[in-house]
Amino acid sequence: MDQMVINSGDTAWMLASTALVLLMTPGLAFFYGGMVRTKSVLNMMMMSMISIGVVSVLWVIYGFELAFGYKANSPWYGAISFSGLGGVVNDFTNNGGLYPIPVLVFAAFQLMFAIITPALISGAIADRAKFTSWAVFVAIWSTLVYFPVAHWVFAFGNKVGDTVTGTGYLAGKGLQDFAGGTAVHINAGAAGLALAIVLGKRVGWRKESMRPHSLPLVMLGSGLLWFGWFGFNAGSALAANGIAALAFMNTQVATAAALAGWLLVEKIRQGHPTSLGASSGAVAGLVAITPACAFVAPWAAVVIGLIAGILCSLATGLKYRFNLDDSLDVVGVHLVAGIWGSLAIGFFGASSVNSVGLDGLFYGGGTGLLAKQSIGVALVAAYSFIATLIIGYAIEKTIGFRVKRDVEVSGIDLNEHAETAYEMTSSSRGGSIL
Amino acid sequence: MKLITAILKPHKLEEVKIALQNLGVKGMTVSEASGFGRQKGHTEVYRGAEYTVDLIPKIRLEVLADDAEVKAIIDVIVKTAATGNIGDGKVWAIPIEQVVRVRTGEQGSEAI
After folding, report:
1. Which helix (H) or strand (E) holds B92?
2. What is B2-111's CATH number?
3. Domain containing A241: what range?
4. Whether pTM exceeds 0.80
5. Would an 8 Å CB–CB cutoff place A209 in contact with chain B?
6. Measured between alpha carbons, how far is A198 from A393 in angstroms, rounded to an integer?
7. Mind listing the GO molecular function terms for this protein (chain B) (predicted)?
8. B51 reaches A (C-beta below 8 A)
9. Is the dihedral of CA A219, A220, A225, A231 positive or negative?
10. Chain A CB contacts of B48 below 8 Å
């Protein structure tokens, strides 16, 4: 290891990528915040912000070790250690092989994924969760669900010489998930489904209007997500190289195609392409290409994105059939597009574009890869759903998860945060300091 | 003295205001309002879910006038605000008992 030197190009790109991925979480706050009513926009945005606060601290204390430590040599978790990252400051990144970037850069990069995943779940329970209970949920869920699942999927083991130790279960089984279709999006989507069941419907759901209060905020949010996602996907190459370039281009074209696909469905079904549809389509495309971005050719990324846009625009209507108030369509967008993107590798995977990739069904690789992908999808979805149901009900039975009816009706911002987002009239500007 | 109240389509406010100023009207109060009449509401679609919006944004314009001027003012408002489409609004006048200008204490017609 002593002959290894830091590659400044790779390290610079990873530092930039890390900051890009952090920006996705405030971006998500805008995306979700614009979709709720004026009385709950601050709470909605705060549910994302508190994830930054809670998860960053847990990550330093034990989260990184639990996900990417290899001492336990277990396929299910990394290492149980409370070293606070103190012992690794001078190490290089080792994840199935050595990378010429400091491990702290890798740890910071992966932290941003750990932050946004619980934040994604919050859209399923908009307007109605106690804020402190949500913060407790984020801490427990990260510990019991995200950190271990990140190990299953993203931990390729500590490679010394020819020996690799501590490889995650799904990584070892050959699951291809470049940037988190399973660990991030299916994980968050299945958890969102579980929490929507635990908390129940909002007061007045389907009876009163719950229109998005600010579509420009939604579009701002989707723009920030798209921008940050280049770090999420292309940064997952852990290097400034051709694989990063492939992931970058695929991220762009899949997202563009999904945006167009969603609008096409709206134009045909309702007659009007909407701004919410464009924003939602973009996010659906980003989600779908996340696992596949470094394993498929750009033309395939267009197909994956287009299908994601069409599929998700149809899927978001299903919650009304199932009478489930997944308020901001975490299931319809993240779970559905996450599953589609993860399985799509089984069809479009091409070893010609990535030497560590495998050929999917359309490239003569048979169904082997599709089977591996299906196992990964099913395992992560099932574990996340069941674990989240248990954590959710445990919180509901102990400290309570849902706010009182009055709080929900009069506005969660005022009651949970003692703030309101907007001064609607000039006459409300008065008041005195106590 | 009468209080004339007009409910207008928001985009007609500017035209009506200028027409009233040309007629010699010295003051008015404008506020944002919402409501419905024969127009009922309209439908908006969000991620495929349809919402009926029945309270539509309108402008509420109020003018105080001497009895003799009321007819001319109402005529100008109606003429200017009309587009011929449903939802153009309404104008009505009601009698006023007392008007006082706050700064000077002038009363009645003097205060208009």
Report:
1. strand B89-95
2. 3.30.70.120
3. 8-414
4. yes
5. yes
6. 6
7. ATP binding; enzyme regulator activity
8. yes
9. positive
10. 266, 269-270, 313, 316-317
Which of A212, A269, A320 lies closest to B46 in CB terms? A212
Mutate to test the interface with A, among B30, B34, B47, B54 (most CBs of A within 10 A): B47
Interface membership of A272 toward B (CB under 8 Å): yes
Residue A28, min C-alpha distance to chain B (Å): 18
With CA atoms as reference, report the closest residue to A33 among A115, A129, A116, A127: A127
Whether A359 maps to a domain, the answer reads yes
State which residue of chain B sits closest to A426, comparing Cα positions.
B31
Domain membership of residue A150 (yes or no) is yes
Task: Report the C-alpha gap between B58 and A144 in whole angstroms.
Answer: 53
Judge whether A325 is closer than 8 Å to chain B, CB to CB.
no
Domain total of chain A: 1
**Tokens describing residue A6:** 């830091």
Phi, psi of A128 (to 5 degrees): -145, 5
Check CB contact of B105 with chain A, cutoff 8 Å: no
Q: How far apart are CA A385 and CA A294, in angstroms?
A: 28
Decide if A3 is inside a domain. no
Look up the CATH number of the domain holding residue A31.
1.10.3430.10
Per-residue pLDDT of chain A (434 residues; tens, 9 = 90+): 456 899 999 999 999 999 999 999 999 999 999 999 999 999 999 999 999 999 999 999 999 999 999 889 999 999 999 988 877 888 999 999 999 999 999 999 999 999 999 999 999 999 999 999 999 999 999 999 999 999 999 999 999 999 999 999 999 999 999 999 999 999 999 999 999 999 999 999 998 889 999 999 999 999 999 999 999 999 999 999 999 999 999 999 999 999 999 999 999 999 999 999 999 999 999 999 999 999 999 999 999 999 999 999 999 999 999 999 999 999 999 999 999 999 999 999 999 999 999 999 999 999 999 999 999 999 999 999 999 999 999 999 999 999 999 999 999 999 999 999 997 666 655 666 76
- CB pair distance less than 8 Å for B48 and A313: yes
